[in-house]
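Narrative progress, year one. The postdoctoral researcher (J.K.) led the effort to move from monomer predictions toward full complexes, under supervision of the PI. The following entry was the first complex the group processed end to end, covering 864 residues in total.
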Amino acid sequence: MNDDLELERYELFEGPAYQFNFNRRQFLKAFSGGIALIVPMSDLVARTLQQEQGESGSGRGNQRVPDEIGAWLHIDESGTVSVFTGKVELGQNIRTSLAQAVAEELHVPVTTVRMVMADTDLTPFDMGTFGSLTTPRMAPQLRKAAAAARETLISLAAEQWKVEPASVRIVNARFVNHDASKSLTLAEVAKGQKLVKTIPADVKVTAVSDWTIAGTSVPKVNGRDFVTGRHQYTTDMKREGMLFGRVIRPTAMESKLVSSDTKAAEAIPGVVVVRDGDFIGLAAPDQQTAVRAEKAIAVHWKAPGQPGNDELFEYLKKNSTVSSRGGGRPVGSIADGMAAADKKLSQTYTVAYIAHAPLEPRAAVAEWNDGKLTVWTGTQRPFGVRSELAEAFHLPEEKVRVIVPDTGSGYGGKHTGECAIEAARLARASGKPVKLVWTREEEFNWAYFRPAGVIEVSSGVKNDGTVTAWEFHNYNSGASAIQSKYDFPNQNIQFHNSKSPLRQGSYRGLAATANHFAREVHMDELAHLVNIDPVEFRLKNIKDARLKAVLEAAANAFGWGRKKKGCGIACGFEKGSYVATAAEISVDAKTGRVKIERAVASFECGAIVNKVHLHNQVEGAVVQAIGGALFENIQFKNGQILNGKFSQYRLPRFSDMPKLEIVLLDRKDLPSAGSGETPIVGLAPAVANAIFDATGKRQRSLPLSS
Amino acid sequence: MAKVTSLNVNGKNLRTDVDSQTPLLQVLRDHLNLTGTKYGCGEARCGACTVLVDGQMMRSCVTPVGRVGGKPVTTIEGLEKDGKLDPLQEAFLKADALQCGYCTAGMIMSAKSLLNKISKPSREAIVKHMDANVCRCGTYARIVNAIEIAAGTAKEVA
């Protein structure tokens, strides 16, 4: 595992970080003509200044990355601009924002840029679409590739006209000479060329202040396909002779198959039953028959006793070990810091397991042709899923192709390939393409959850509001954003691995939500302890100008100075971007139900690439955060999920929407960071602090209640 | 078992041959290749499967196809007329009222049903009507804005 690429333990599952199969030689073989600009893998993984600032305390040097292709841009002889990237579109609108970056540099309309994404046979290796990395890492490299392509094309046009390259410009996707008396199209310049270049180190990209396409609110490039229902998600695909799959699930996790009788199901015409170890599945000509066959299978499982919610937090602490990752070395001395404090506080915070509940459940269509497996599936890690498939079926990776259609969201929940493997297993047995779409119940029971966790915080503070000591222990939920931008002189911050009773994995923002929740509620408690306004108290402990700026922006837009009862605020930093969230709540006197009446989120992620889509992402993250803050809580016992359907698991809905204001700070002088995750972290602590403000009762567990 | 042999969908009489208990959603998607209507939860709690029957919304995942025999069914595919989008479809694009887009068809069909009943609904009426539809990406405010644009009551564009 390349340490430089590892984000945290929940972000990646087992499997190699690299599966190099697309080297230069193979690329040249596939390359037919025109002009291609290659983005080397090493450039993609090189840290941007932004990331360096964002991941403090890592202290790891850049590892040498082999000289492989990470992405490329191709202008063919007909003038079509194509971008090849292994990134996945799941609603975060990178199909649009990456096309914008390329269109900007090439001076062509966004709609003429063809994005070829997430197809392991067509696009170069990519680790996966997660960690808010597309914008800070992929976009700048594609921008450079496009800029280099532009310079190459200009030189070629100049050569044709026998003029100086400096006199050639691109206007409206045409090359024109100094007095515009001659012009050439992209196709006319690219025709007859067979040029492959690696992006030169010194290529000049357009300054952010000169952006005319990037930085503007270009609409979703394939938006029309979505509002007409024409877009084909994995769940919508149909292949010739395709069967519908079902998997027979155990009654509880960790179950072993004791016995099964599949004879009656096998007798149904057209039904193929697969029994392989503890896997039982079937494929049938239509869904009705599949359900009938499923009911005809008699199966007996045995499951061990397993912990439930009631003992969860005790269990996580009891089974914990100190992790070498996250936290980092202590700073200063906690003992000295405590000795210098006027007041001390120790509190425990908890977060529940929650589900991603992407509206498109896991799905895969698998097809075998002459020993080669092709799987269409909605995953955030097409190359990772290819590895899983290759391993499961003992195939070399070149015999497996994974294609990811633009997918019905993921939020970190679609990193794994179990559905793809199941569909492929059924397809192999039946000799026909098989579509497997997980039911909502399967999605709740057999995917994975955001980790639950326990966080213990002990601190000391002076009466003037200076925090003198900060001890922070996170059990199980993760190390993301465990470090803060607060200026604490004495710190001891630890992440403790634990044994999770439920399968857990990445979730939008990872543990940044849990760590911000504990930290920002604790900060609010300290502010009240020393009788200082929560905004003022935070500002007193922040040196970082960008964090100050978002906090002040949120406070101003919210009208913090003239706030009513029932308001709270929180701020934070993660993955190169800054957020502050203020919330006003009401508590129903009869039911005790908490309603978020109003919220302001300010967000800064460097230079803004697409304001409307950024606004949409930030707003969406805040709305998703409402669920984790107020309702979402997986109930479980003995390996069974007790509330695994939408009628039992409360998601944020229209009527939960607060009056929401998003304040975007555009820092054109700073590189763009991703925005899909960080805006989710501020709402829960802001609401917890608002509940205290309203009721005087301190809430320290997510989901919150009054 | 009773069979359903034809359905009136998007103004056309389409032949099919399914058990009358089959959920309408499966018939539309698997038998008639109208995949714009989505499966989300199977218990009428997310609205992704919403279609119009006689102009009013129905959750097709829990509707046996036998119940809609002979009645006009409209799916998302039926809204675009001669290459011209329905005002709601236009409004969803204008308001950027989608991220992953998986809920979009159900949202548009639910909104269509509302506007068929009330041409200029209040914001409260929109929220109440749409509350059984889930957008996990959280674009609710934009969807409300889109419905108001289509209804001609939008005060501001997001």
